[in-house]
Structures are given as structure tokens and as C-alpha cells.
Design goal:
Blueprint (H helix, E strand, L loop, with lengths): L2 E2 L5 H10 L5 H12 L13 H10 E2 L5 E6 L5 E6 L5 E8 L4 E4 L3 E3 L14 E4 L2 H14 L8 E4 L9 H12 L11 E5 L3 H10 L3 E5 L5 H7 L8 H10 L8 E7 L7 H10 L5 E7 L13 H13 L26
Parallel strand pairs: 1-2, 6-9, 9-10, 10-11, 11-12, 12-13
Antiparallel strand pairs: 3-4, 4-5, 5-6, 7-8
The structure holds iron/sulfur cluster.
Amino acid sequence: MQIDLKNLTFEEITALAKQLGLEPFRARQIYQWIFQKHVREMDQLTNISKGARQRLKSIACISRLLPQRIDISGDGSKKFLFMTKDGYGIETVLMQEQNHQTLCISTQIGCPVRCRFCFTGRRGLIRNLSTSEIVNQVSAVLQEENITSKLPNLVFMGMGEPLANYTNTVKSIRILQCPWGLDFSHRKITVSTAGLIPQMKRLGQELPVNLAISLNAPNDRIRNYLMPINKKFPVRELIKAARQFPLPSRKRITFEYILIKNVNDAPEHARALGKLLSNIPCKINLIPFNEHAATAMQKPDEKAVLEFQAVLHSRHFTAPIRRSKGSDIAAACGQLGKNI
Ligand code: SF4
């Protein structure tokens, strides 16, 4: 089986180049060709000798993902559908913000965490995405949208729980951050988790990266109901791990809180949340629930959303209301996975 160069970190490409008898600087050239110039064939690596290309070609290939469909939302968001070789759909969403773009990428087909409010998790996990399938979502969107400067923010918040596919997620971040490749700053990358505490701790030790915790409840009773994973990693332990997470300087942890009508959207929940997160440098993103076919849960009333926010503001929290992007094309938070 051929080695997919898009699965390799810079250090691994350097080792491969050495194995093939190439000078060390060739690794840098290969990385530039595949990630900056988006070449698809070994023969396009024109500053590498023909013999070396032949040797490379005999053992390695350059994978890519091609969008099968692009849905465009009324708010300008775009949902890209890519097909894997074994016939599964990967969904990736590019959102237009005021001054920048945010690209939401997937790490799994389906999701093992099975949050009660989430469409993606309804069928459980089908399989992990490979490192190259994660990296190729970014490469493909940059190429399709002709983005060469001002890279988007990257959020690992699409289909799947990134930390349940830990090895491939971390490896893909290392590849995306490599200065000879796409050169994403660690400040631009946010990994979201439902709260896999051991992997959170490991991530904090291994990579400087922003962390978002999908919290959605101020106590174990509600969180057990919404997110079964809470039975394994309860709220208090999760918050303790969040306090200890080493962030890039001047960054705060983000807590995601999906507001669901009559479940977790009352002022008393906001007060309990404020108490739970007191003294943590954080931002709380309030996300009114996006309704979908897999659940009878409902979006909250506007009045409840504003009251919830007011309680948090009165306790000096930063708590923006995140109006979902792309809900008209099933691209909003918790809606991905129709095309699996
Ligand atoms: S919300 Fe995230 S972690 Fe929960 S089931 Fe959906 S994709 Fe998985």
C-alpha cells in the first residue's frame, strides 16, 4: 500500500526523504508543493530530480478530497460535502463572520458520544477520519475558495468528537501548523470537546491550542440527560480539568452552552452556571438550539435567551449569543451528518 504524503508530519516527510537518499531540504520543498501549491501528482514536483520523483512515486501518493456538493446558505455560509473512498460523506462548513471566516471541520463519520440534542450522534460512530481526511478538508476549501492569505479560523467542531480520534486530530493540527505547509497559527485553531478529561489533559501537555468545552448544563442532572458522557466525566471533574488546561497566552477557555427550551434555559440555570464557572477566565457562547428531525427538542424563546444572557452579564461573564450560521442548509451546530 502506498504512503499518503498528506498523512505525514514534516518530521515524517523528512525521515522519508532521508530513506530515499534525498537531501534534508527536499522535505521542505515537498511540503510546500503539496500544501501551498496543492499539487496532486508527483510529476508536478518540478524542482525535485526526475529520479527522486520516480522513487517517491513508487512508494507514495498525494491524496485529496473534492467537493461533491456545495450548499450555500442565505447568510453566506457554505457547506461542503466530500466523499471518502469507502463512500461516506464528510461535511465541512465555512462561515462568514464580520471580519473573518471560520472553517468548521469534522474528525469522525458519526460520533460515539451521542449527545441527545445532536443529529450527528444519532447513529453512533461509524469510523474515525484519517489524518489526511482531516487535513484535506482544509486544503480543499482553501483551494476551492481561492484563499491564499488571511487564513480562516479553524474549529474542530464538525462531525465527531475530536478527542475520541485523538491521534489523528493532533497529527492533523501539527501538519496544519507547519510553517512549510499551511502555517496556521495555534491561536487560530480551536478544538472542541464534550469533555473527555484524560485526552483534554494530554492535549494541554502536547499542543498549544484553544479549547472549547461543550457544557450545555450547569449540573449533573441535566448534563447526564443531554450528554450521556457526563456519567463518566461529571461536571465538577470537567470544570476542574478546564481550570488546569494550559492555554496560549491571553486566551480564555470557551464554554459552549446550547439553550434548549424548558430543559436548560431558565434564569436559575444561568445563575447555577455563573456559580460553576466563577473565577475561570472564560467566554460562554450561548447557542439557541437548532431544531432538526432527530429530536423533539425545541429552540428557546427569544425572551429566555436574553434573560439567560442578562444573568451572566450581571456576573461579569462574556456571553455572546451565537446566532447559528447555515441552519437553512443543515450546516448549523448539531445539524451535520445528513449525508453520512
Ligand atoms: S454534539 Fe459533538 S460530541 Fe455530541 S454527539 Fe454531536 S458531534 Fe458528538
